[in-house]
Amino acid sequence: MINVEIKARCLDLRRAERIARREVQAEPFGRLRQVDTYFRVLSGRLKLRHIRHYQTHPGSGVKESYEFISYHRRDEAGPRGSVYQILPVRDGPAALQFFGAALGVKARVQKIRKVYLQDNLRIHLDRVQGLGAFLELELAPRSRSDMENCRQRVEELLGLFGIPRKDLVPISYSDLVLRGRRS
Question: CA 158, CA 13: separation in Å to the nearest integer?
């Protein structure tokens, strides 16, 4: 699967949430508590994501799941393509132990994420432990030829959300965590 995405520092998540709801007219999907464990791999990135999904509907409870996410993406600011695969996992703790022993753990990222959906757009409002607040936009092209339209739409959304270029983050949360450890 492919998408076009950006990650940006976001000083005001409440404002971003209002824009997502009112101006983009995105629907709330729920609040997620995610723990991403990144493994050491030769190419791209591989992480095991543990998700606790607090749904928006009262009485829906909490759904818990695990999934492997493998992806390749250039480290660059601005709208960029990402090629990824997702594999659901039944026994997350066993998978974590197995792959941690086999590959080694590179980094662990913990975040609270609010998700909003509008057509083929996903808006993530993230509070990442030790890193701060971020906005992520992900657009899934309907076809390979739709990539440029998605890039243009992401650029428009950056303007709508008032995200300056200097706040775009070219690297993954795992890289930010690792940089923080070296300081």
Answer: 14
Is residue 154 within 8 A of residue 136, CB to CB? The reply is no
Domains of the chain: 2-182 (2.40.320.10)
Contacts of 23 (CB under 8 A, 6+ apart): 160
Cα 100 to Cα 59: distance, rounded to the nearest angstrom = 36
CA 134: distance to chain centroid? 10
Residues listed for the chain: 183
Phi and psi of 121, rounded to 5°?
Answer: -105, 135
pLDDT in tens, 35-83: 999 999 999 999 999 999 987 666 677 899 999 999 999 999 989 999 9
Put simply, whether the predicted model's pTM sits higher than 0.70 gets the answer yes
**Which tokens belong to 86?**
């997702």
Give the up-direction half-sphere exposure of residue 144: CA atoms within 13 A in the CB hemisphere.
Answer: 0
pLDDT value for 58: 66
CA distance 20 to 30: 13
